[in-house]
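Entry 14: structure prediction run for TRAP transporter small permease. Input pasted below.
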Amino acid sequence: MRNLKKSVDRIIEFLTCTLFVVMVAVASWQVLSRFILKSPSTFTEELLRYSLIWLAMLAAAYVVGKNQHIAITFLRDRLVENSKITLDIIIQSIFLIFAAVIMVYGGGRAVSLTMGQISPALHLPMGLVYLALPLSGVFILFYSTTNIIELMHKKKKIPYINEEKKAS
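Run finished. Output tokens:
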């Protein structure tokens, strides 16, 4: 499972880094064509907008996989280790439900509804732009599932408080 997670990490890292490099190149071309060549490029703004959507969605999935998402931890910090793991499992389960219902199901419906719409400058089906939502949802489903499995293994290794007191 860890090897699969590392492979998925590498895929997302490659996609996001490549997308970022392309965005920097396109933004540089936009500035060059507008201010130096005095002939603004027509597709760059739209390409940057759609690329940013893809970058943000893929990066969000990656962050869930690395467990580095924004969290309010004042409740978690007051719990004992076993309760912290239980809370983390609940949080990952909420991620799982959200990704399944909103991102994969809802995003899939958005893709199917917008495949007939064409973007003005790039002439791409808008469904391709919205495809970032269900795809990143699938990645979040994968990462949340692996995170829950890891947390359950971790929880099995930590003795309960009552067991600790009995041993002393």
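Notes: The CA atoms of residues 85 and 151 lie 6 Å apart. Will compare against the previous run tomorrow.
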